[in-house]
Amino acid sequence: MALDAARPSAIAPVIAAAHGISVREREVIGHLVTGTGTSAIADSLGISAHTVRDHVKSILHKFGASSRAEPTALLLGTHRPL
């Protein structure tokens, strides 16, 4: 019996939960993975751009990341450990 690798969509919620990502932060991440900019995220979620930036800072801190691309890569399964 062969085992297939888990799809990113199946493991992303587990990874997010392991990093203590809130429900709202998950919504922001959903936009980040598609490359949506801060203003568009704010408009979509009905929050200010400042609040989006605060959520992004929190996400980066929780993942120990320095750019938006790092948590996105981890959640999409494109991150390669060193």
UniProtKB/TrEMBL annotation:
Pfam family, one: GerE
HTH luxR-type domain location: 14-79
InterPro entries reported for this sequence: Sig_transdc_resp-reg_C-effctor (IPR016032), Tscrpt_reg_LuxR_C (IPR000792), WH-like_DNA-bd_sf (IPR036388)
Database matches in CDD domains: LuxR_C_like (cd06170)
Gene3D superfamilies membership: Winged helix-like DNA-binding domain superfamily/Winged helix DNA-binding domain
Signal peptide: none
Superkingdom as given in the UniProt entry: Bacteria
Keywords (A to Z) from UniProt: DNA-binding, Transcription, Transcription regulation
SUPFAM superfamilies registered for this protein in UniProt: C-terminal effector domain of the bipartite response regulators
PANTHER family, per database record: DNA-BINDING TRANSCRIPTIONAL ACTIVATOR DEVR_DOSR
The protein's name in its UniProt record: LuxR family transcriptional regulator
Organism of derivation: Gordonia paraffinivorans NBRC 108238
